[in-house]
Amino acid sequence: MVDSVFKLVTGNRLRDGTVIYFAGAGIWTPTIAEARLVEERDGAALLADAQAGSPPHPAVAPTLIEATRDGERVVPVTLRERIRAGGPTIAHSGG
Amino acid sequence: MYRYDDFDRKFLEERVAQYRDQVRRRLAGQLSEDEFRSLRLMNGLYLQLHAYMLRISIPYGTLSSAQLRGLAYVARRWDKGYGHFTTRQNIQYHWIRLEDTPDILAHLATVQLHGIQTSGNSFRNITTDPFAGAAADEIEDPRPYGEIVRQWSALHPEFSFLPRKFKIVLNAAPDDRAAVKIHDLGLNLRRDAKGELGFEVLVGGGLGRTPILAQTVRDFIPRRDVLAYITACLRVYNQYGRRDNLFKSRIKILVQSLGIEKYRQEVEAEFAAMGAERDELDLPDAVVAAMQAQFAPPAYPDARGDEAELSRALAAEPDFARWVKYNVKPHKAAGHAIVVVSLKQPGRITGDCSASQMELLAELADKLSFGEIRITHDQNMVLPHVRKAALYDLWLRLGAAELATSNISLASDIICCPGMDYCSLATARSIPISQALATNLAKREEEIGPLQIKISGCINACGHHHVGHIGILGLEKNGAESYQITVGGSDNAQAALGGIVGPAVAAHEVTATVDRLIDTYLRLRHAGEQFPDTYRRVGLAPFKEALYVAR
């Protein structure tokens, strides 16, 4: 069975660059599971919604991406977006 | 080292104040991202996958201990406790918050560092031999010329709208440790038959989508004319370089399309027509001498007795002997050595250095290396002036901080860009590939001998894959990562671009594929050969065949 592909909007938070997702109604969240998912045909309207509002806009470069649902999990289609959602796939070198 | 004068200090303070106001206006919504982007980039601030990334220029790869402590402070206070040293001898921080950046730049200004011209179509950081001022084989320390060229190029009004970025490199040794031929413009310090100092001028090198090695435009330009001559080189590029197509805008494309002869004619005509301007760009001996005074060598103590002490330690401790064999290089002063500090412990991330490690290196530099540290384009660090009698204790201190890996120029000393784990341009990950290769190859790297593996996560080639003995380019193919492999590249005085060995392979096939290529090399090499020598002799065919048979 082929998973349904949804659209959602992501960007980076203006003040610190954190990856964020549009949850609808002017709300942005760092949790992808809280993102608003729409059918392909409603993608353009969702993006317009996400871009609306007076400056400063909370997100830099709102972009429409594709994702599928796996139970409660929202999984972006591309590896790049999966890495944005989950963080680097390697450990940090901090200390 | 060069110390800022009042003009430099004041300029940088003003620049930070301007930037602080720009950030304030951006956060208040008075500047859009389109308006702000070029302003932040002019100060080295990019936006990447997970956060902002701040790139700080390290002119000619030289740091004082105070500067390294400043970089450590930024890592600890405003990032996740580490920084990443790049193939451009710069440092970048991957977890930066926009709202912190004015304070970060203000702090760095106190140690005479900044992010200006680390982005955009500008003169980027001037790079050079990381052993400059210490190398036994150099003609003269190239860094005074690096600083002169940096001052000439910084915010140069005529060249503030170049067609594309422009990378200048200097080298003063016969053994090219600065990868001169992959730069837009290279200056090789030379002496002519009369013993006069001057430069060989090379132009048109670069990797990326269209890899091309630089060619000589002038065999020898006397030292005092060098600024006028490179002005002429830039002027021809500025006039004829393409601004209509990003992929054809670098000087390498101009030189390729005109041909080196025609480009040379244009430059020589411009140089000849300069007239009185030549006097303004004249570089008199007194100016050079004043700059050289800023880079005066340290007062080395008489260390001739150190050799015997070192010999005893070498005999007693095989692991120390191995480290000295690979990581310690000849110094021009008797009883002294250049120490390369590996940032390539297998399994760790190439080029990453924690705040604690930076602080330790700053302390060790103060105690043992006259307060100086260098960054290499291979993403390692250097303590340039260490007494041989101090090497054993240094090795112990470095070892306790996981900084004494004995692998310089061996298979696990891999150049690797951040790739898709961080970079918004990347098409595939590079760090996990590098970690797997280093861990696998470390076991037999002494048998393999010198081997340069270089990995880039996209066609832009920050990881210099085209000039790796084995080069790996990460691509995206039908939604999956795949890796194109080249062999036979080299970035030294005999620079060469590698040849593609076959179809790209999946991530899980890279380690086995590289093993087969190395096995082929070991089978074919003659005594005394390194990988590029064998490749020049046997060509691409045996390597292709080894992979074809395995399929």
Sum this structure up briefly.
By secondary structure, chain A is α+β, with helices and mostly antiparallel strands. Helices cover 18% and strands 36% of the residues of chain A. The A-B interface holds A 12, 14-19, 54-57, 60-61, 77-80, 83-84, 87-95 and B 26-30, 32-33, 47-52, 75, 80-82, 96-99, 348-349, 352-357, 420-422, 426, 429, 431-432, 435, 476, 479-481.
Overview of this structure, please?
The complex is a heterodimer of chains A (95) and B (551). By secondary structure, chain A is α+β, with helices and mostly antiparallel strands. Chain A is built from two helices and five strands. Chain A has helices at 43-51, 79-86; strands at residues 5-13, 19-24, 27-29, 59-70, 73-76. Chain B is α+β, with helices and mostly antiparallel strands. In chain B, 38% of the residues lie in helices and 18% in strands. The A-B interface holds A 12, 14-19, 54-57, 60-61, 77-80, 83-84, 87-95 and B 26-30, 32-33, 47-52, 75, 80-82, 96-99, 348-349, 352-357, 420-422, 426, 429, 431-432, 435, 476, 479-481.
Per DSSP, the total helix count of chain B is 19
Ranges of chain B where pLDDT stays below 50 over 5 or more residues in a row are none
Q: What level of helicity do the residues of chain A show?
A: 10-25%
Total beta-strand segments of chain B: 21
The description of the largest β-sheet of chain A is: 5 strands, antiparallel
Oligomer: heterodimer
Mean pLDDT of chain B: 97
Secondary-structure element order of chain A, N to C: EEEHEEH
Radius of gyration of chain B, rounded? 23 Å
From the spread of the alpha carbons, the general shape of chain A counts as flat
**First and last CA, distance of chain B:** 55 Å
- Main sheet specs of chain B: 6 strands, mixed
**Arithmetic mean of pLDDT of chain A:** 94
3D shape of chain B: globular
Beta-sheet strand percentage of chain B? 15-25%
DSSP strand count of chain A: 5
